[in-house]
Specification:
This protein has 2 domains: 2-349, Metallo-dependent phosphatases (Purple Acid Phosphatase, chain A, domain 2, 4-Layer Sandwich); 353-387. It is 39% helix and 17% strand. The chain is built from 12 helices and 12 strands. It has helices at 2-13, 33-50, 77-90, 99-106, 142-156, 173-179, 191-202, 288-300, 305-312, 325-330, 337-344, 354-384, and strands spanning 19-22, 55-58, 109-112, 118-122, 160-164, 206-211, 218-222, 230-234, 247-253, 259-268, 271-277, 285-286. The strands form 3 sheets. Strands 3-4-5-6-8-7 form a 6-stranded mixed beta sheet. Strands 9, 10, 11 and 12 form a 4-stranded antiparallel beta sheet that branches. Strand 10 and strand 11 (271-277) form a beta hairpin. Helix 2 (33-50) packs parallel to helix 3 (77-90) and helix 3 packs antiparallel against helix 4.
Length: 387
């Protein structure tokens, strides 16, 4: 019922959008293998009926495998079934002629968008997560192969670019703030691939990067101190399983591929309503430089933060508070563990760094030493008592 009402709300707001972007996690956590493909196909069919002229962009998420989270192997049956269902929507009017050939391999494709000179590079970056494992097939060298594929496309694709994927680079704010309580800085991607990826985007004129995964509305800025900061939009989820209100975004696209008038539509009190957008934060054009300015204003002006928190959780009570605010603010521009730690001026280590491994090893050695000492003490005590 929630899904149907969301589709109807999208149609009401824009009956004939040129582009519809779906940033992954079509499926629920722990969905059965039996239901995975029919669900992904049914979503494509429903959206096709709702928007028969729109060009679709689909990036797969960590749930989208049919055999568990972070588990999709290349050339899987799931990929072939999704390609068959979504291909007519994505390759509308020949916009993505190589889609069927490349998507069935690892979720990658490129597309021409209906703005002059604008192209999209779409890929499955779940392979780059430290949690990735091929549970329903052979992973092979998919991590390196997919990364090389994206880098080649960045070099070869002309004009203004959108890059679309599911997992954002940088820090997992929810896990860092609420699960580990700052004791561990949790990364979304393998640090080596994260650094390589963000460097690649910094070297190319990227009009927009789009990610999902967090279920919340937010932004990131790659290379915020460089001459061409890259704006990244994090899209919210229709599913409310992380305490968010169900939500989706609408935006206008300019001639250079940047966004304007990004608005959040949220399901509140039984109806879908516009709860505002980036203009409530003083941002009209969603560009790298505008986001750098917004980042500075949010850091200096605490009275602006409630507006961001409202958008972040689509109008639901926010997980962000005065104490953990630095985690969410710093994550927008500080992607590595050391820059993030310096920004928050707090402790914490990452398990995926040398320091993290050394810390874990140190804790394990201490535990082992205590266990050995207690065991020896108990043995001596038993001998003294003649047991």
């Amino acid at each position: 019922m929630l899904w149907e009402s969301a589709v109807h709300a999208m149609q009401r707001i824009d009956p004939d959008p040129p582009v519809v972007v779906v940033n992954g996690d079509l499926l629920a956590h722990s969905i059965s293998r039996r239901d995975a493909i029919p669900t992904a196909v049914a979503i494509a069919q429903r959206l096709d009926r709702a928007f028969p002229h729109a060009q679709f962009i689909l990036a797969l998420g960590n749930n989208d495998s049919g055999c568990g989270d972070y588990a999709l192997a290349p050339d899987a049956t799931f990929l072939r079934a999704v390609a068959a269902a979504w291909g007519p929507l994505i390759n509308r009017r020949g916009a993505a002629p190589g889609f069927m050939r490349t998507f069935v391999r690892d979720g990658f494709y490129t597309a021409t968008l209906p703005v002059a000179g604008l192209h999209a590079i779409v890929f499955d970056d779940v392979y780059w997560s430290p949690r990735y494992h091929a549970a329903c097939g052979k992973g092979g060298n998919v991590v390196n192969a997919s990364f090389t594929e994206v880098e080649s496309a960045l070099r070869a694709t002309p004009g203004h670019l959108w890059v679309l994927f599911h997992i954002p680079p940088g820090v997992d704010t929810f896990s860092t703030a609420l699960i580990s309580k700052r004791t561990v800085i949790v990364p979304f991607m393998r640090p080596d691939l994260r650094d390589r990826f963000t460097a690649d985007l910094s070297d190319k004129h990227i009009a927009l990067a789009v990610a999902g995964h967090t279920h919340k509305f937010a932004y990131r800025v790659i290379d915020a101190t460089g001459p061409n900061p890259v704006p990244m939009l994090l899209v919210p989820a229709i599913s409310p399983i992380f305490g968010n209100k169900p939500a989706f975004l609408t935006a206008d696209v300019t001639g250079d591929g940047s966004l304007r008038h990004v608005e959040v539509t949220s399901f509140k009190r039984g109806r879908w309503i516009d709860i505002g957008g980036m203009r409530s934060l003083g941002v009209d054009a969603f560009t790298g430089k505008a986001l750098v300015d917004l980042q500075a204003r949010l850091g200096a002006n605490p009275s602006l933060r409630p507006a961001f928190e409202r958008l972040y959780n689509a109008g639901a009570p926010s997980e962000i508070n005065e104490r953990n605010w630095p985690i969410y603010w710093c994550a927008a521009t500080a992607f590595g563990t050391t820059p993030f730690r310096n920004c928050t001026q707090a402790g914490g280590f990452s398990f995926i760094t040398q320091r993290g491994l050394e810390a874990v090893a140190g804790v394990l050695l201490i535990v082992v030493a205590i266990v050995v000492a207690v065991d020896r003490w108990q043995r001596r005590r038993r001998r003294r008592l003649g047991l």
